[in-house]
Amino acid sequence: MAKKRIKLEKRDERREFSIIFHELWTESLGHIGGSGALLYCYLKYLADYEVPEPYSAEWEQAVCLPLGLSINESHAAWAKLQESGLILLEKNSYVLCEPRRTMGTPQANENNVLMVEVEARFGRPLSMTEVGLLGDFCRLYDESLVRLATDVAVEAGALSLPYIRQVLLNWKAKGIVSAAQAESDRVGFQEKKAKRNARTTRRGAELPPLSPALSPSKSKYDETEIILRRIKKSAGDEVRHGN
User: Fold this and answer.
1) Bridge partner residues of 95 (DSSP)
2) Domain limits of the chain?
3) How far apart are CA 11 and CA 74, in angstroms?
4) CATH architecture classification, 15-96
């Protein structure tokens, strides 16, 4: 007995989800995060209806509960959508914008990957200003140099794009143009720093302890006594001038 079969055809009628949201996942997800993408999709679903403002009492019931988000999570997601230009305030009303493909070239796609890497190293999303700075770095310097400069910033605990820029400028002033040169300079700097620390430690260990007579001590008069002396002196001056 022959099996009954049906033919399935794929149609692209639901463009609002299959096409528009493609840019959301590929271009914006690294910045807005999962909560931002979830909130955007839900707002897109509610776009033809009125929704409460994010800081209104109805927001939690209408938006947070259906999405399983806390109020703070939803507010953070809303802020990221605004930073990404997906929500704009125009004439006292909010406009939900379509995601736009901004990373159209292979080089730009690599920059987007780098942005995600930097955000992971910093442990936070980059602002739109920082994303712009990172794009400038990639246009001016080799990407491997930008990655090494990021490593230097993380090691120094300076999680900022301006610090990365300063590292890149220092390398440029030294004539460093390749990742190998930058790594050599970085290792050399770390070795010099370790030697300086070792010399300082040895000098501290070699110095004999100061005797109590020679050890640093507080001034002869403490701060309270000095203030009292000044008050008495001022009072004496006033008496003399009055006579």
Assistant:
1) 88
2) 15-96, 106-199
3) 34
4) Orthogonal Bundle (1.10)
> Backbone phi, then psi, for 52, in 5-degree steps?
-70, 155
Q: pLDDT tens digits, residue range 85-139? A: 788 776 667 777 777 655 444 444 555 678 888 888 888 877 777 888 888 888 8
Closest to 33 measured CA to CA, from 102, 60, 54, 41:
41
Q: Which two tokens stand for residue 125?
A: 């999303």
Q: Which residues touch 126 (CB under 8 Å, ≥6 apart)?
A: 31, 115, 118, 119, 134, 161
Going by CATH, does the domain composed of 106-199 fall within 1.10.8?
no
SS3 of residue 20 by DSSP:
helix
Angle, in degrees to the nearest 10, between helices 161-173 and 143-156? 120
Contacts of 99 (CB under 8 A, 6+ apart): 20, 21, 23, 24, 27, 28, 86
Beta partners for residue 93, in sequence order: 90
Domains 15-96 and 106-199 share a fold: yes
Q: Give the separation between CA 205 and CA 211, rounded to whole angstroms.
A: 16
pLDDT digits (tens, 9 = 90+) for 187-234: 887 788 778 777 777 776 666 665 555 444 444 445 566 666 666 666
- Which among 131, 129, 142, 135 has a CA at the least distance from the CA of 168? 142
What is the C-alpha to C-alpha distance for residues 102 and 28, in angstroms, rounded to an integer? 10
